[in-house]
Specification:
single chain, 78 residues, mainly alpha, Arc Repressor Mutant, subunit A, 5 helices, 0% strand
């Protein structure tokens, strides 16, 4: 990105975000995209760099308020 870590953190701070929060938002968006493409959850776990499916499910539930499987089912019904 051509920025030092400090400069990036300052710019994110101006938007009220931390790097960790931005990373979570990006991971959620990518997870949702992959879920809608009907990718197996285990593949998504690996693609997003989670240690295992339970860690991914816990993070996804924190981000989206529901499990990945339930989110996918609800989105496909809509």
């Amino acid at each position: 990105m051509g920025l030092s870590a400090h400069a990036l953190n300052q710019r994110l701070k101006a938007f009220g975000l931390t790097f960790a929060e931005l990373l979570d938002l990006m991971r959620l968006e990518l997870a949702q995209t992959l879920l809608l493409r009907d990718r197996p959850i285990q593949e998504i776990v690996v693609d997003l760099g989670f240690a295992d499916a339970s860690a991914f499910t816990k993070a996804f539930k924190k981000w989206a308020g529901t499990t990945p499987a339930r989110w996918r089912t609800e989105q496909l019904r809509a």
